[in-house]
Amino acid sequence: RWSVVNARVFLPCSVIPTNPQDSPILVLISKGDKPVYSVDARDGGPFSSAVQWASPRVIGERGRFVMDEGGGLELNPVSKSDQSDYHCKVEFHDSPTRNSRVRLHLVVSPSQPEIIDDSGNKVTGRIGPYTLGETITLSCRVRGGYPKPQVIWYHELFLLDDISELTEGELTVNKITLPNLSRQHLDRKLTCRTSNSNLTKSIHTSVVLDMSFPP
């Protein structure tokens, strides 16, 4: 199961018995091999008013057991440290104990793209002016992101380059070179766009080329 950091996530743990006359008496949810949440109705009361416990260090007030889709643990907001395997154990009055597992994968969005010029300076908005015949190199870099983000250059609406030259640690970089600038490059928009999941919107930064022409 995939989710995005800081969003709401639902980890299924069905408490619906196979026998309609039966009911659950205990739910125990573990992260890895450590219990992190329980719903305990062994005192004989209805499951809807059972005692709920959450690990204060792991879950805290972010978690609650809800009856959506037959039952499950809701985490809101989910954090990067929640990525793990979860084991759900449900005991009933009469039915056999039920065990299920779910693996939680989390998407961490990358940083806002930064555009860097030939001199290593961060540039924004209108850049230049450049002269006819000049060659320029621009790098787009983003930090972080899980899974590793794509960094893609567009010239107006047209794909220019979708291959990152450098992926090192937390940094992903895509570099483009525009040779022999012409009058047609005046006011052209270059956009660097990054994304790492269809669960999140892409993030972009744009610059516009300024040109100077001889009289």
Automatic annotation (TrEMBL):
Per its UniProt record, what PROSITE patterns does this chain match? IG_LIKE
Alphabetic keyword roster:
Disulfide bond, Membrane
List the transmembrane segments. none
Q: Name one GO cellular component term.
A: membrane
The cross-references to Pfam families, in alphabetical order and at most eight, read:
C2-set_2 (PF08205)
- How is this protein situated with respect to the membrane? Single-pass membrane protein
> In this protein, which residues make up the domain named Ig-like?
113-208
Cellular localization per UniProt? Membrane
Name the principal localization, coarsely classed: membrane
PANTHER family per record: OBSCURIN (PTHR23278:SF19), SIDESTEP PROTEIN (PTHR23278)
Q: What is this protein called?
A: Nephrin-like
The organism's taxonomic lineage, starting at the top: Eukaryota, Metazoa, Ecdysozoa, Arthropoda, Crustacea
